[in-house]
Design goal:
Strand order of the largest sheet: 10-11-14-17-18-19-20-21
Shape: globular
Number of helices: 15
Number of domains: 2
Number of strands: 25
Largest sheet: 8 strands, parallel, barrel
Radius of gyration: 23 Å
Structural class: alpha/beta
CATH architecture of the largest domain: Alpha-Beta Barrel
């Protein structure tokens, strides 16, 4: 029964579409396409029916709403929904073998700032260069439709609909096909821990949210509801089935609160592998919680401890979550895997959070970044590069939004200022206005040739045995790492790194 529930509007191929809406809270639901309004029939907690045409809205409580599972929102979050025929996508990747943890080197990027065009198509010219560098997968920050045109993507409202400002779903499919042709996989960052502001279209149909739990971002999503589980899981399945995506990065799974068995994160992993057994599932999880790889069957999880140790060793900052870090011995243990297979730990010198969540979005200085990157890439853990670091990009990656609700826009401005009031390292500095288009433009990349160090270290990590010998000299603040016959020595006081063969 559950497998037969296919949410959203799906084309039949004859000009008509089947539509299914989870709507236990609605007294009635209709679909309006053009001049035709068709009442849907109740089927338990779902409403089903069919209609003709491409553009449509749902009608509930005497109001028109976008479909919570809309596949396209060409006019933004307040516009009509569109039916998407994914069978029209053209694929040339039949020979693509997929991704494995053994060879995984991730390159995280934000679509809007990665190129001047700020679109999926704008990424394509640089795919071959990334593969030559040694990257094996690009990880796209969230692309689900969010308010306005520019933003990080973590406040998505229509999780099934690729953001139109980026080029929409057809262009996303073309990017994935082009990536596979270049020898690169595609990992998609997806957000199932909260929904952005302006989510009235979800609330109109059912209890998507619960007050049994709280999250940092607002109301928790209620995964005790079968229809809500299907909303998330079928979205994840869509990316594998219809867009040929190779893996998912699940954002902040510690805020996906579920008392059910199995946990939604475990069920989701099993279901996407039912679509494609090769699918990689990687989670962002708070430190000390190993459920993703120990209980939920995920392939890997982000491991920020090594980043924090490196950052404090290289900068001396102790504000916020950096308090208590800065140990060479702690870093050595992290890079060994902290008691786990190191391939299952994703480590980085920088990522969107660790740059963008700083008040000014500033990156590590070149000398510090060179050391942090070398240590990260030499380790047997799975490395993640943040866009631009391979050539020491100097442009910041700042926090930017384009909220269309003035009250939410102002609250975002004030919240951003308040967040950094107690940070000594940012005292007296103005926090950039997240709503200003200049904040977004400042964050655009200025690509140039990668530093040879990155290519050398990525190539080297594939030649050396995975076993790591790590020695920490706390008094001299020096870390020595050995894999096979090659030794890397990182001096955190002098910000130097040396490879000895």
């Amino acid at each position: 029964m559950l497998r037969k529930v296919k949410l959203g509007a799906l084309p039949r191929g004859d000009g008509t579409n089947d539509v299914c809406v989870w709507g236990p809270s609605a007294g009635s639901v209709a679909v309006r396409a053009g001049d035709e309004t068709t009442a849907l029939e109740r089927d338990g907690d779902y409403w089903r029916g069919s209609f003709s045409g491409e553009e449509y809205v749902l009608v509930a409580a005497d109001r028109e709403w976008p479909d919570p599972c809309s596949r396209r929102q060409p006019e933004g979050v307040r516009g009509s929904s569109r039916v998407l025929d994914t069978s029209a996508f053209e694929w040339t990747d039949d020979d693509w073998a997929g991704l494995t943890l053994d060879e995984l080197v991730i390159y995280e990027l934000h679509v809007g700032t990665f190129s001047e065009a700020g679109t999926f198509a704008g990424i394509e010219p640089r795919l071959a260069g990334l593969r030559e560098l040694g990257v094996t997968a690009v990880e796209l920050m969230p692309v689900a439709t969010f308010p306005g045109e520019r933003g990080w993507g973590y406040d998505g409202l229509y999780t099934y609909a690729a953001h139109e400002a980026y080029g929409g779903p057809a262009q996303l499919a073309r990017l994935v096909d082009a990536a596979h042709a270049a020898g690169l996989g595609v990992i998609l960052d997806v957000v199932y821990n909260h929904v952005g502001p302006g989510n009235e279209a979800l609330r109109a149909f059912g209890p998507y949210f619960t007050d049994r739990h709280e999250t940092f971002w607002g109301d928790a999503i209620d995964y005790a509801q079968r229809g809500v589980r299907e909303w998330a899981i079928q979205n994840a399945e869509q990316w594998m089935r219809d867009f040929h995506v190779d893996g998912l990065r699940l954002d902040a799974v510690h805020a996906i609160l579920d008392d059910s068995e199995p946990h939604i994160c475990a069920e989701l992993a099993a279901r996407v592998r039912g679509v494609d057994p090769r699918t990689l599932v990687i989670s962002e999880m708070e430190l000390g919680d190993w459920r993703p790889i120990e209980e939920w069957g995920h392939d890997a999880q982000w491991f920020d401890a090594s980043h924090h140790e490196l950052h404090v060793l290289l900068t001396g900052e102790q504000d916020g979550y950096y308090a208590g870090f800065g140990s060479v011995a702690g870093l050595a243990d992290d890079l060994r895997g902290a008691g786990h297979d190191p391939r299952r730990l994703v480590v980085c010198a920088q990522n969107h959070d660790q740059v963008g969540n700083r008040a000014l979005g500033d990156r590590l200085p070149e000398d510090a970044l060179r050391v942090a990157a070398a240590v990260t890439l030499f380790s047997p853990c799975t490395p993640l590069l943040f866009m631009g670091e391979e050539y020491f990009e100097t442009a910041p990656f700042q926090f930017f939004t384009d909220h269309i609700d003035p009250a939410i826009a102002e609250a975002t401005r004030e919240g951003r200022k308040k967040e950094f009031e107690t940070f000594a390292s940012f005292s007296g500095q103005d926090v950039p206005d997240p709503q200003a288009v200049e904040t977004f433009i400042r964050s655009k990349l200025h690509p140039r040739e990668p530093d040879p160090l990155y290519r050398e270290l990525i190539a080297l990590r594939r030649e050396l045995p995975r076993e790591l010998v790590a020695e920490a000299d706390e008094s001299k603040r020096v870390l020595s790492l050995r894999r096979g016959s090659v030794k890397l020595v990182a001096d955190f006081d002098n910000k130097t790194v040396e490879l000895r063969r």
